[in-house]
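Milestone M4 deliverable, item 7.
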Amino acid sequence: MYYILYAFFYLVSLLPMRVLYLFSDVMFLIVYRCIGYRRKVVLGNLENAFPEKTEAEREVIAKQFFRNMIDAFIETFKLLSASPGFLQRRITANWEMLEQLQQGGKSCQLHLGHTFNWEWGHHVLQMNTLYQVLVVYGPLSNKAFEKLLLKIRTRFGSRFIPASDMKNSIAGYADTQYLLGLVADQSPGKPQQAFWLNFLNQPTAFIPGPEKAARNLNIPVLFASVYKTRRGYYHAELVMASEHPALLEPGELTLMYARFLEDTIRKQPENWLWSHRRWKHVFKPEYAAQWIESRQAAV
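Output delivered:
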């Protein structure tokens, strides 16, 4: 099955972007208009996050989100044949910040959210730094697609490590200068151990792992925002969050990240992954010790 999938998507990836985006337009009509894939989830999330907006305004955001999501899906498979030059022209960022850090001799962490197109982003990141880029991910249950995605994701040198074995996997790079990329807006598996705060107008659980790893290792932490400048083109902004996270109070780095991410989302809401069930956990009184909102922090 893997080889069939690979051959099919490789041939598709050879098509010019203008043709691939025509496919994306057709898929949008099917997904949004006909199937209504997670449309209620998206509109519900937008209503809770932006109660000040009208229903019509949220509908506009939802439509553009689905277009961006399907574009990102198409763009991901373009990676099977895309050249380094193709990607370098389409993803820009202040990469010089990484050079300064790398020359300092330390590894670092990069925290970002599910803003499109993170699949293109880590490839261009690896092209523009001497760091070994490590990305934490959740393996898929479908083994054929899992193998195909790993083929795509590691094509330009990034290394993907499963979240279930993150600690042991990173240990293998202890003697390497690495940049650990963490999509840190995942919904945690254990809400009772998560950090809790108000995020987009509602109590939200954040995974504690990224902060704990940064504080234990005391390595610099960068935050990244990604914006879509036009169809097929993106710009990322890298910001230093903390050079010495071990000096921060527990929960402080997570609060900083949440506020940074919220600002990124508000600037371009249609570019965040509204279809995932980010708020499936409900805050309970027994989680009160994990509430970090009272700590004030800013990037």
